Amino acid sequence: MARRASNTNWPASLSLQAEMYRVTGELYRQLGLLEQAAPLLERAVTLAGALQGPESAEAGAALDRWGVLLWDRGEYPQAAGVLERALAIRRRVYGPRSAEVSSTLGSLASVYSDLDRNDEAEGLHREAYDIDRSRYGDESLDAATSAANLATKLEERGAMEEAEQLHHRALDVRRRLGGPNHPDVADSLLALGVLRSRGGRYEEAERDLREALAISQRVLGPDHHKVAHIMDNLGVALEHRGALADAVATAREALAIRRRVLPVDHPDLGLSVNNFAVLSYRLGFFEDAERGFREAFALFERTLGSGHNYTTTAMANVGVVLRERSATADAEVMTRRALALRRTTRGEDSPEVAQSLRTLGLILTDRRAFVEADRASHGRGGAIAARLSAGASTSGRSPRRVGAIAPGAERPGRGGAGVSRGPGHQGIEDRTRRVADRGGAHVPGRGDMHTGDGRGSAGAHSRG
Question: Residue 428: phi, psi to the nearest 5?
C-alpha cells in the first residue's frame, strides 16, 4: 500500500522538483554563478516538458530562464532559439498582452541586439513597453524596465534626447519604488553614464558610473560580471578625462573579473580584452595592443562569426595597430577584409565603412600609393563622413554600443598625453557594452568595446 501511495504522488513530487530546479538555478544565475545554474535550469526544462508537456506554461517558464542563462553565457544564437520557443508558448498560454509575454519579449530583444538584429530588437522592446504601460501604468517598475530597454535602442540610432528622458523617467521610478540601493537603480545609472559619455559629458558620466558601481558591489559582490561591465564603462570615462592611470587600473580589474567568472569563449570577455588593448594602444604599447586585439578578434570570430560588428571592429583594430608597427602589408590585408565585411553587413554609407576607408587611405599613403589613398580617405570615405557629420540619414545605423572614433594627429600613446581627436586621422575603434537586464531580478550584464562612445546604457531588462 505504501508503495502504491508513493507512486500516486510521484508526478506531483517531480513537478515540485522541476520548480525547485528552476527557482534555484535562477538564483544562481542572478548571483553570477553561471556554471552552477546551468545543470539546474537544464534539468528544469527537461522535467517540465516531460511532466506538463512541451507546450505547457511550466515548459514556457523553464525555457525562458534557460534562454536567459544561455544569453548570460554568451551563447547568443542558442539563446535566441530557446527564447523564441518560450515566447511562442507564452503567447498561446497567457495571451499576447500578458506580463509573461512582456518578460520574454525583453529578454529576446536583448539577445537580438547582441546578434546585430537591431530593428527586430527595437520592435520587441516597443511591444514590451506598450504592454507594461497598459497593464501597470507609467509609474511601475515593469514599465520603468521596458522604458530603459527602449531608451537604449533609441540611443543607438541617435535619438539621444528622447533616450535620456526615458532613462531619467526609469531612474526616478526605480529610486522611488525600489529604494536607492536597488539593482535596477544601478542599471539606470549605468545607462545614463554611458549616454553622457557618448555625448562627451565625462564628469557626469563618471559620477553616474561610480554610483552604479558602488551599488552593484554592495548588492552583488566584487566578482560579479555586472561589476566588470560597469568598470569597463567607467574606464572609458576616466580615459577621456585624461586620468589614464586610473583608467588602466579600472580596465585591468574588469578584465581580471571577467577572466575569473566567465567562460573562456564568452563575447563579453572579448570586449574587456579589446578595451584593455585600446588603452595599451593609447599608451604606445603597440605589441601588447596587437596581442589583445588579435585575442578579441579570434574570440569574436569563433563565437559570433566574421560578419558581426564586434568581429569587424576587432579586425579593424588589428589593422590599425599593425600600421603603427610598420607591418604595412599585413595592415592593408586586415583593413581591406574588415572593409569588405562592413560593406556587406553595415551598408556602404555606414560610419564603420567610412572609418575603414580612412584607415585604408593612411595605409596607402604609407605605401606612397597617393591616388588610391586620396580616393579612400577623401573620396568615398570623406563623403560618407561629411553626410554623417551633417546629420544626413544613412543606410547604416549609429553603431550599436560602439563608437568609431578618429584620434587626432598626435599618435595615440606618444608622450603619455591624452589623445587629441580631430577629423581625418584614423584611430582604434572601441565600444563599451550597454546594460542588459534579463529576466528574473533584472540583473544586467555585458560590456562592449570602448573608447569614444560606449555600450553601457540600459539594455534588456526583463522580468521573469
Answer: -65, 140
